[in-house]
């Protein structure tokens, strides 16, 4: 890979070496993706909300925890009710709510706005 990168399209690099380098590059990309996926899912578990959204959240998530979008934020969070306050359990990924979809769903009356006091 180094020779091909260093010499570019030079005719001094054989087509066989270029093919080997291309395969090594593809393998490296797959391994890089695997490392990233493993890092993103470490200490996380899959869960499902009562409204059937799939969540990748903290390993300590429990039934009854709340997945919420904090206005102005870029991430979703898992909160746990403790009396009249909430404990921030951690960030989570919730498919279908991450790209601003929550505001559209709220406008249709399917999600509601709530004020949280976080401890």
From TrEMBL:
Pfam families referenced in this protein's UniProt entry, alphabetically: Het-6_barrel
Protein name: Heterokaryon incompatibility domain-containing protein
């Amino acid at each position: 890979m180094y020779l091909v990168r260093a010499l570019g399209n030079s005719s001094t690099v054989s087509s066989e070496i270029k093919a080997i380098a291309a395969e090594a590059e593809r393998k490296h990309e797959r391994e890089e993706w695997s490392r990233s996926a493993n890092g993103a899912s470490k200490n996380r578990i899959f869960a499902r909300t009562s409204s059937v959204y799939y969540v990748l959240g903290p390993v300590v998530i429990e039934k009854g925890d709340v997945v919420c979008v904090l206005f102005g934020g870029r991430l979703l969070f898992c909160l746990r009710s403790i009396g009249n306050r909430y404990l921030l359990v951690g960030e989570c990924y919730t498919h279908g709510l991450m790209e601003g979809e929550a505001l559209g769903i709220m406008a249709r009356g399917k999600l509601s706005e709530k004020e949280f006091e976080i401890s």
